[in-house]
Amino acid sequence: MNFWTAPGGLHIARGEIDDARALARLHAQGFYRGWPASDFTAYLADPKITPAYVATDARRNISGFAMLRISGDESELLTIAVDPKKRGHGLGRALLSAVFADLTMSPVKTLFLEVDETNAPAIALYRRFGFADIGTRKGYYPKPDGSAATALVMAAPIG
Ligand SMILES: CC(C)(COP(=O)(O)OP(=O)(O)OC[C@H]1O[C@@H](n2cnc3c(N)ncnc32)[C@H](O)[C@@H]1OP(=O)(O)O)[C@@H](O)C(=O)NCCC(=O)NCCS
Questions:
Q1: What is the CATH number of the domain that holds 140?
Q2: Closest Cα to atom 25, ligand 1: which residue?
Q3: What is the Cα gyration radius of the chain?
Q4: pTM for this one?
């Protein structure tokens, strides 16, 4: 089991199946369209394909998480979210550092992601980690007002 330190006395650990409810709650706080806890249960049951990383205290109070999908030598950052009350203190950075450290020891060569082109905090975080723009997908993210936002597709090399 890998283990990385994180700000605020937290650490980054691999997600486990019992974390499903906590991850669904954090995800719903971060995105207009949440995913049901049952989706997280299914993802967490298959950690070789969809590994998760959680920022947690010693009592498993989870303040943020990231989840990947692995496919051969490629991986996609499916989602990353930090508790709104705990943003801006380095947890997103700690989660991505753990993701990159773990992928360095895997066959994955490239990490992809999609992000709403108006999501400035997330795009700034990704650029810090070496993600470059590789394209856009129009109409990708539905919005509460019925419109849809364009996704920026980004990629970063591993290792
Ligand atoms: C994106 C998110 C995960 C960042 O988590 P966080 O813990 O607040 O991020 P950190 O404190 O580690 O910040 C890391 C970097 O992100 C960028 N960043 C974070 N918040 C920012 C803000 N409000 N404005 C601009 N840049 C910001 C900065 O580059 C920052 O580095 P710096 O502190 O050295 O300047 C968090 O804002 C979140 O959960 N958002 C809602 C869900 C979401 O949009 N996820 C990404 C979708 S693809």
A1: 3.40.630.30
A2: 121
A3: 15
A4: 0.96
